[in-house]
Amino acid sequence: MRADDTTCPVTGSGTTDPLPFPFPLPTALEPPAEWRRLQQECPVARVHTVVGEDALLLTRYEDVRAILADPRFTRRPLDDAEDGSFPSTIAQGEGHLRWRRLLSRSFTVKRMRALQPRIEGIAHELIDEMLRQGAPADLRTALGFPLPVFVICDLLGVPAADRAKFAHWSDHMLNLTRYTEDEVRESGQELWNYLAEHVRAKRAEPGDDLLSELTAVSDADDGRLSETELIATGQALLIAGHETTANMIGKMAAMLLSRRERWESLLADRALVDPAVEEVLRFDANLGSTGMHRHITEPVEVGGTTIEAGSTVLALMQAANRDEDAFADAAEMDLARTPNPHLTFGAGPHSCLGQSLARVELRTVLAALLDRVPGLELAIPADDLRRREGLLVGGLEEVPVRW
Fold first, then answer.
1. Residue 176: which region, alpha, beta or left (left: phi > 0; alpha: psi -120 to 50)?
2. Alpha-carbon gap, residue 226 to 232, rounded angstroms
3. If you count Cβ atoms within 10 Å of the first and of the last residue's Cβ in the chain, which end, N or C, has fewer?
């Protein structure tokens, strides 16, 4: 059947009126009931988004994974670099693939793992300060927010004195409601201008950092990264690598501490740290509100429904990660779950390039907290945690803890 011919019982009495989207979460950590109902009854659901866009929502694991890996589904074209966003040559098609090929030469799993001692040192410094300040503390402010930006600044060879600027720019550029459009645009331009000067300095005097290395990366077929591409790379690392991991650190702690037996299991068996991080990534219902946007230029059948050319599709990865047909006892957190092929980092040619770094950061932070603060607990009931509204990547306003 065609997408515009579908009737889904969950939309109410067989009507084809689109569902308002996104769906509100019952609590900051729990998924909406609509996910499971749509998976069972309406795998390709018509929705109307808060920005006034009509789209088709996919919630089943098999369908979401298929379109994320399907080159016929593309991202929305982005504006040029002058406004501080990605240049279209990087964001789309062959330009994006070329950029990924060049960047992957340096952004390797081995290199990210080699950062672990430095990340561990940063984590312990921040925990030292949190303990010095005393309980209660906001784990997001004390640890989750500063650690990733410190790591990104180290990667880019940015002086420690400029870390606060990067945190400010990241916060502005990923928040949909807290700042005005002019403020967001101004932050993007400030970041772009800073990185432009920084890239030129690294070209003139390379250091022992990723950005300096990238200035020399070259390939017989792909050439080397241009100045614009290097600036966009720095911007991408900050935006994708800071706010997402910052919020994930807080959510990870909240999920593990919301049920004491989870934390106690990790204290008893540190071999669970790595699979626990993967399960936290899968279990996260607060991954973001809008799903991954994709566009199609030719008819494609998904979930028994023909999606017409020109359609906008939303791949809801966090719903796919809770699909009972893909994960046994998907509604339960299993810290020893393996294999765990969750879709939090996407799939296919557009999967997250920084996922190795994110994993190293999360594992290192979790191990440090278990070592340093074994008595850590939430200072408020888990149901009282508040979702951080307006962020593209989801998050919690605060994660109050004591020990």
1. alpha
2. 10
3. N
**The pair of three-digit structure tokens given for residue 392, joined into one six-digit string:** 């593209």
Given a cut of 90, whether residue 217 has pLDDT beyond it is no
pTM of the full predicted structure? 0.89
Q: How far apart are CA 223 and CA 202, in angstroms?
A: 19
3-state secondary structure the chain: CEHHHCCCHHHCCCCCCCEEECCCCCCCCCCCCHHHHHHHHCCEEEEEECCCCEEEEECCHHHHHHHHHCCCEECCCCCCHHHCCCCHHHHCHHHHHHHHHHHHCCCCHHHHHHCHHHHHHHHHHHHHHHHHHCCCEEHHHHHHCHHHHHHHHHHHCCCHHHHHHHHHHHHHHCECCCCCHHHHHHHHHHHHHHHHHHHHHHHHCCCCCHHHHHCCCEECCCEECCHHHHHHHHHHHHHHHHHHHHHHHHHHHHHHHCCHHHHHHHHHCHHHHHHHHHHHHHHCCCCCCCCEEEEECCCEEECCEEECCCCEEEECHHHHCCCCCCCCCCCCCCCCCCCCCCCCCCCHHHCCCCHHHHHHHHHHHHHHHHHHCCCCEECCCHHHCCECCCECCCCECCCEEEC
Write out pLDDT tens, residues 342-396.
999 999 877 888 899 999 999 999 999 999 999 999 999 999 999 987 666 678 9
Q: Which residues contact 145 (CB under 8 A, 6 or more apart)?
A: 167, 246
Residue 319 sits at the vertex; the CA angle it makes with 315 and 322, to the nearest 5 degrees, is: 140
Angle, in degrees to the nearest 10, between helices 227-238 and 146-156: 160
Could you give the CA distance from residue 360 to residue 366 in angstroms, rounded to a whole number? Answer: 10
Give residue 15's pLDDT band: very low, low, confident or very high (50, 70, 90). Answer: low
